[in-house]
Amino acid sequence: MSFTTPYFTLPKFTYLKPKKLEDALSLLRQYRGKAKIMAGGIMLINLMKERKISPEYVIDIKGIEELKKISKTENGIKIGSAVTAIELQSYQIIRDNLPALAKAASYMGDRTLQHTVTIGGNISVGMPSTDGLPALMSMDSLLTIKSLDGERTIPASELVIGFGRTSLKDDEMITEIVVPYSRGFKGTYLKLINASEVAIATVAVSVLLKEKKLTVVIGAIAPRPYYFDHKSLQWNWEASLSENIKNASEIIGSSVKPMSDAVAGSEYRKEVSKVLAARALKEVFGGA
Amino acid sequence: MKTISLKVNGIAKEITIEDNELLLNVLREKLGITSVKAACWRGECGLCTVLLDGIPVKSCMTLAVEADGKEVITAEGLYFDEKAKKLMESFVKHGAMQCGFCTPAFVVTSHYVLTKNPEIDGEELKKELNGVICRCGTYYQIYEAVKDAEKYYKKETKS
User: Fold this and answer.
1) Which of A4, A62, A113, A151 is deepest in the core (most CB within 10 A)?
2) Is A41 near chain B, with CB under 8 Å?
3) Domain range B81-153, its CATH number among 3.40.50.12780, 1.10.150.120, 3.20.20.30, 3.40.50.720
4) H helical segments located in chain A
5) Do A109 and B43 lie within an 8 Å CB cutoff?
6) CA-closest candidate to residue A65, choices A29, A24, A33
7) Which of A42, A53, A60, A112 should be substituted to probe chain B, the one whose Cβ sees the most B Cβ atoms within 10 Å?
8) CA of A41: which chain B residue's CA is closest?
9) In the A/B pair of chains, how many CB contacts fall below 8 A?
């Protein structure tokens, strides 16, 4: 979030609250380019207060039941895009199977806002400060994107294309997130924030022990999160954990190019990324 | 302009609003409910927290139209709740305020927390209350007051 003077009012818009997904999609098409989707609305309302955006129509999707479901299928765990951060932390199915996501959700705003914040909103604004995206990327999640023309599926890593920009077209919305794993894997999520609660760096780590697959995602340091896997980290499953972690954090440090802003400088973010990555790896592999 | 119907502190209301009005403005200016404080206007301080269908929300981050068909509860409404009244008395007993500006928001939020889980762990309680800021720094007293009020929220054992 920026540090501009807050406004006390919102620009004029028409509020629409469809009950069905098809209705939301046709409204998006009908008012193409003039409408914005609102779920929790935290980011949307703040951006409107700052007059950074002034949509003519606001489409509230909180009334659409199918976007609020969480289910376990043979293809993994499916999470509706309007599931809230509180739900991600409290549902047993997420806590047991996707701990990195549950932990990331505990960082999405403060506790009160977490009743409102949704996973879809958190990732689709396309800001580096998202907690959901690094966690989802570390688990190789897929996003189901729908428009009136049908649906397409993209890897979570292809959602953000630049600062505040996503690959979503203006008549499309994320309807569902599919995490392809549900067992035999561990994960965690760590974050360093400064006193004003702005993220300096976030790290999401996921390990699939059975298939010896490891991913480390570093978020909040650049417009797009950085994705590493056991290959790019030159992880040697035979070598000792401390050796591997030391090596991996050096590789991370030499590959990331963090941004400098009011919150932290590039060099500091780079150091923090290395330290957080090492801590997260230790946690996931259990000590050392 | 549209008319929404909602229940505010137990009383059914019909209000005419614009789509772009915030719940905060409507509560303060149209309904005269002044325990709901307007401070940061950007969802950070939590002083405008109200219960919307029992869930704490920041009313500066909520459209008034979102409250259509729902029930809003503020600190004024909680005065008529036996348990919440004890909670408020506990705030007084423990001196859990200095200027008092954040008190309604803390009362509303901790009422929600204790209703949900009156045996909440201390660290969990601190986390649950992290959406509200007290600039006087009376957090410790607030924590003590809420902990002390737990007993009123526990299921009635035999008395």
Assistant:
1) A113
2) yes
3) 1.10.150.120
4) 21-30, 42-49, 85-90, 92-97, 99-105, 111-114, 119-124, 132-138, 241-255, 266-285
5) yes
6) A24
7) A112
8) B61
9) 71
Instruction: Give the model confidence (pLDDT) of B22-67 as tens digits.
Output: 999 999 999 999 999 999 999 999 999 999 999 999 999 999 999 9
pLDDT, tens digit, for every residue of B74-89? 999 999 999 999 999 9
| Highest CATH level, class, for A68-179 | alpha beta
- pLDDT mean across residues, chain A: 91
Query: Given the DSSP bridges, would you call strands B2-8 and A14-16 parallel, antiparallel or unpaired?
Result: unpaired
DSSP string covering A231-259 = TTTT--TTS-HHHHHHHHHHHHHHH----
ipTM: 0.94
Tell the CATH topology of A185-285.
Answer: Enolase-like; domain 1 (3.30.390)
Residues A260-277 pLDDT 10s: 888 888 999 999 999 999
What's the confidence (pLDDT) of residue A2?
A: 45
A100 touches A191 (CB < 8 A): no
Token digits for A164?
């505040």
Residues of A in contact with B63 (CB under 8 A): 10, 15, 41, 45, 58
Report the residue from B20, B42, B46 with minimal CB separation from A112: B46
Judge: B20–A12 Cβ closer than 8 Å, yes or no: yes
The class level of CATH for B2-74 reads alpha beta
Residue type, A56: E
| 8 Å CB contact of B49 and A9 | no
Stretches where chain A sits below pLDDT 70 are 1-6, 182, 195-197, 209-210, 287-288
Domain boundaries along the sequence of chain A:
14-60, 68-179, 185-285
Window 113-152 of B, Cβ < 8 Å to A:
127-132
